[in-house]
């Protein structure tokens, strides 16, 4: 794929089960590394990039093609952190680092129940974490050398992850 211009800033995908700290980590990293933070959930709501509401899972059914079309130009510019609980539909070329946040199950359960998750929504998300579905999905869809799993149980973990990732951003070089 020939690009007219190379990105001067890296793009990062921060993924993980709901409740693992994606938005908290993404926001803090955006501030620390001077990157733009795009929450796919917010983008889908703001721009109506969905195909309706799923009553059982209590969420929008996102239209992946519309989301990718909306983000294409921004991602080519670079310097973007994308925050979403999935990763299998984004073009591989978009990301220089894919971060999978992971949280211990009992901590995750408490976080999700505080958010009001129950029934299928709660059990599906806990199972997703137990079976490391998102880590496997990331490894299947991206070069393994750009995928990193980071523990996200505590405020200290988040701070450490932000510091590690900000250092990575500051040392990143465009691929020639």
Automatic annotation (TrEMBL):
ATP binds at residues 19, 21-24, 115. GO terms for cellular component: cytoplasm; nucleus. GO terms for biological process: ribosomal small subunit biogenesis; rRNA processing. Its EC number is 2.7.4.3. It catalyses: AMP + ATP = 2 ADP; ATP + H2O = ADP + phosphate + H(+). Residues 114-124 are annotated as: LID. One of its GO terms (molecular function) is AMP kinase activity. It comes from the Eukaryota. Pfam families: AAA_18 (PF13238). It is an enzyme of class 2 (transferase). InterPro entries: Adenyl_kinase_AK6, P-loop_NTPase. It is found in: Cytoplasm; Nucleus. Residues 39-62 are annotated as: NMPbind. Residues 1-26 are annotated as: Disordered. Residues 15-25 have a biased composition (Low complexity). Keywords: ATP-binding, Cytoplasm, Kinase, Nucleotide-binding, Nucleus, Ribosome biogenesis, rRNA processing, Transferase. Interacts with small ribosomal subunit protein uS11. Not a structural component of 43S pre-ribosomes, but transiently interacts with them by binding to uS11. Belongs to the adenylate kinase family. AK6 subfamily. Broad-specificity nucleoside monophosphate (NMP) kinase that catalyzes the reversible transfer of the terminal phosphate group between nucleoside triphosphates and monophosphates. Has also ATPase activity. Involved in the late cytoplasmic maturation steps of the 40S ribosomal particles, specifically 18S rRNA maturation. While NMP activity is not required for ribosome maturation, ATPase activity is. Associates transiently with small ribosomal subunit protein uS11. ATP hydrolysis breaks the interaction with uS11. This is Adenylate kinase isoenzyme 6 homolog. It comes from Cucumis melo var. makuwa (Oriental melon).
């Amino acid at each position: 794929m020939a690009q007219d211009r190379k990105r001067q800033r890296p793009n990062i995908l921060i993924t993980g089960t709901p409740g693992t700290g994606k938005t908290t980590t993404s926001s803090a990293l955006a501030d620390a590394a001077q990157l733009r933070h795009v929450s796919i959930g917010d983008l889908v709501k703001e721009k109506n990039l969905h195909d309706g509401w799923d009553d059982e899972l209590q969420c929008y059914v996102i239209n992946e093609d519309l989301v990718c079309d909306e983000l294409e130009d921004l991602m080519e510019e670079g310097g973007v952190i994308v925050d979403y609980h999935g990763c299998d539909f984004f073009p591989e070329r978009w990301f220089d680092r894919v971060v999978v946040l992971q949280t211990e199950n009992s901590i995750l359960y408490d976080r999700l129940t505080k958010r009001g998750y129950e029934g299928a929504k709660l059990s599906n998300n806990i199972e997703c974490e137990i079976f490391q579905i998102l880590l496997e999905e990331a490894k299947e869809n991206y070069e393994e050398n750009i995928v990193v799993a980071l523990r996200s149980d505590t405020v200290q973990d988040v701070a450490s992850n932000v510091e590690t990732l900000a250092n990575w951003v500051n040392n990143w070089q465009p691929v020639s």
